[in-house]
Automatic annotation (TrEMBL):
Probably acts as a heme chaperone, transferring heme to an unknown acceptor. Binds one molecule of heme per monomer, possibly covalently. Binds 1 [4Fe-4S] cluster. The cluster is coordinated with 3 cysteines and an exchangeable S-adenosyl-L-methionine. Its main location: cytoplasm. It comes from the Bacteria. Transmembrane segments: none annotated. PROSITE patterns: RADICAL_SAM. The gene is hemW. Belongs to the anaerobic coproporphyrinogen-III oxidase family. HemW subfamily. CDD domains: Radical_SAM (cd01335). It is found in: Cytoplasm. Residues 24-270 form the Radical SAM core domain. This is Heme chaperone HemW. Keywords: 4Fe-4S, Chaperone, Cytoplasm, Heme, Iron, Iron-sulfur, Metal-binding, S-adenosyl-L-methionine. The keyword Iron-sulfur applies. The keyword Nucleotide-binding does not apply.
C-alpha cells in the first residue's frame, strides 16, 4: 500500500471522520484491505509489521495477540467502519495482505471474507485477493477460498533458485510456487500473481531468467517484480554490514529490471505499473488500482493504513494493542491527517505517473509542463503521448520514475 507518515494528529476514539471526507463516498472506487500480521518465520529482508509466535510470546488462543483475538478485533473494526461511514459502499475490492494470510488456513480466510461481507457487502464482480506463501497453502485451503468467493491468489515466490531463496531466508523450495499456482487455477481461482524480487546478493542474470521461466510455466497471469531494497534493522542489512554479502548495485538492478520487462513482454505480459505486469487488462490488480488512482479504502488490522476522501489514518501496530482497543470499544487508529492540496497533487503525480496510462498534462502547472518538455526530449517521457496530452514514462523513464515525478510536481 502507499506509505503514509508515522506522525499526525490524534485520531478520535470513536473513529469519526470529517464530514467533508464522507462527501462523495461511493462515487470513487472503494476497497477493503485486511492486514494479517502473523508469520511462521521472519524473512531476512522484511521490515513489514509482522510477528512470529515467539515474537508475541503466545501461550493460548485467548492471548490478546493471538490469531483468534485478532479475528475478533477485525470483526469489531469492520463493524466500526460501517458505522463511521454511515452507508458504506459495497467493496469493489478486498485484499488480505501481511504477514502470511495463508497461515489462517481455509476456515480463517473464509471467516475474514464473511466479516467483510457482513459489514460492507461486496459489489457484484468484486475482486477478492489473498496473499499466501507456498509452504502454507494446501489444496484444501484453495478449494475453500474459491468456494467462498475469493477470485485471486498472490503468491510470495521471490525466486525459483535455491541459493537466492536461502539469502532471502525463504522457506519454500524451487518449484513450490509454480505447483501452488497451478493448483489455485485448478481450484477455480481466476487470477494468480507471483511476486519476484530481483537483485538479491548472489543472484545472476541466469538465475533471474530461470525464475522468469518458472513464472511463465506456472500459468500465472500477473507478475509483481521488485528490486531488492535493504531496509535498516533487518537481518539482511546486518549481514551486509558484516560483509557477508555485497549491497545491491543500482546498475545491476536496472539491468535486471530490463530482463524482467523483456522476458515478460515477449511472453505477452504488458506492464501497467512500473513494478507490475499482466497478461490482459482483466488480470490487472484492481485493488492496487484503487490506491494508484486516488480511491478510498478502509485498512483493517494492526498497522493498517486507510484513506477516505482526503483523510488518512493508521492503526496501532501491535496485535495486542489493536485487540485491546477494540475490546474496549475504541477505534484502533493511532493517528491521522487531512491531506493538503499540495500533498494531494504530489501524490497524484507520483502514483499516476507510474501507470501505463500516465498522467494528464493538464494536471501540471507551468513549471511542471516545462519539466515535462525536458523529460520528453531526454527520452524519459513518450514524446507522442506528451504531444497528445499524457505524461507516460518510457522504459528508461520507468527506471527513474520517482525522479521524473518529483520534477513534474516541482518538488
Amino acid at each position: 500500500m502507499p506509505s503514509v507518515p508515522s506522525s499526525g494528529e490524534p485520531a478520535p476514539a470513536d473513529g469519526a471522520l470529517p464530514p467533508a471526507s464522507l462527501a462523495g463516498l461511493g462515487t470513487r472506487p472503494f476497497g477493503v484491505y485486511v492486514h494479517v500480521p502473523f508469520c511462521a518465520t521472519r524473512c531476512g529482508y522484511c521490515d513489514f509489521n509482522t510477528y512470529t509466535a515467539s515474537d508475541l510470546g503466545l501461550t493460548s488462543s485467548d492471548d490478546p495477540a493471538s490469531p483468534a483475538s485478532w479475528l475478533e478485533g477485525l470483526r469489531r473494526e469492520l463493524d466500526l467502519a460501517a458505522r463511521v461511514l454511515g452507508s458504506p459502499p459495497p467493496a469493489d475490492t478486498v485484499f488480505l495482505g501481511g504477514g502470511t494470510p495463508s497461515l489462517l488456513g481455509g476456515d480463517g480466510l473464509v471467516a475474514v471474507l464473511d466479516a467483510v461481507r457482513s459489514s460492507f457487502g461486496l459489489r457484484p464482480g468484486a475482486e477478492v485477493t489473498t496473499e499466501a506463501n507456498p509452504e502454507s497453502t494446501t489444496p484444501e485451503l484453495l478449494a475453500a477460498i474459491a468456494d467462498a468467493g475469493y477470485t485471486r491468489l498472490s503468491l510470495g515466490m521471490q525466486s525459483d533458485v535455491d541459493h537466492v531463496l536461502a539469502v532471502l531466508d525463504r522457506r519454500h523450495t524451487p518449484g513450490a510456487a509454480v505447483s501452488v499456482a497451478g493448483a489455485a487455477l485448478a481450484a477455480g481461482l481466476r487470477h494468480v500473481n507471483l511476486d519476484l524480487i530481483y537483485g538479491t546478493p548472489t543472484e545472476t542474470d541466469d538465475d533471474l531468467r530461470r525464475s522468469l521461466d518458472a513464472v511463465l510455466a506456472s500459468g500465472a497471469d500477473h507478475v509483481s517484480a521488485y528490486g531488492l531494497i535493504v531496509e535498516e534493522g533487518t537481518a539482511l542489512a546486518r549481514r551486509i554490514a558484516r560483509g557477508d554479502h555485497p549491497m545491491p548495485d543500482d546498475d545491476v538492478l536496472a539491468d535486471r529490471y530490463e530482463i524482467v520487462d523483456d522476458v515478460l513482454g515477449a511472453a505477452g505480459f504488458g506492464w501497467y505499473e512500473v513494478s507490475n505486469w499482466a497478461r490482459s487488462v482483466d488480470a490487472r490488480c484492481r485493488h492496487n488500482l484503487v490506491y494508484w488512482g486516488g480511491g478510498d479504502w478502509w485498512g483493517a488490522g494492526p498497522g493498517a493504513h486507510s484513506h477516505v476522501g482526503g483523510t488518512r489514518w493508521w492503526n496501532v501496530r501491535h496485535p495486542a494493542r489493536y485487540s485491546a482497543a477494540l475490546a474496549a470499544g475504541r477505534s484502533p487508529a493511532e493517528a491521522r491527517e487531512v491531506v493538503t492540496p499540495d500533498e494531494a497533487h504530489l501524490e497524484q503525480v507520483l502514483l499516476e505517473l507510474r501507470t501505463v496510462d500516465g498522467l494528464a498534462v493538464a494536471a501540471l502547472d507551468g513549471p511542471g509542463r516545462s519539466a515535462g518538455d525536458t523529460a520528453a526530449r531526454d527520452g524519459l517521457l513518450d514524446p507522442g503521448q506528451w504531444a497528445r496530452g499524457r505524461a507516460v514514462l518510457t522504459r528508461r523513464g520507468r527506471l527513474l520514475a520517482d525522479g521524473v515525478a518529483l520534477s513534474l510536481a516541482g518538488a
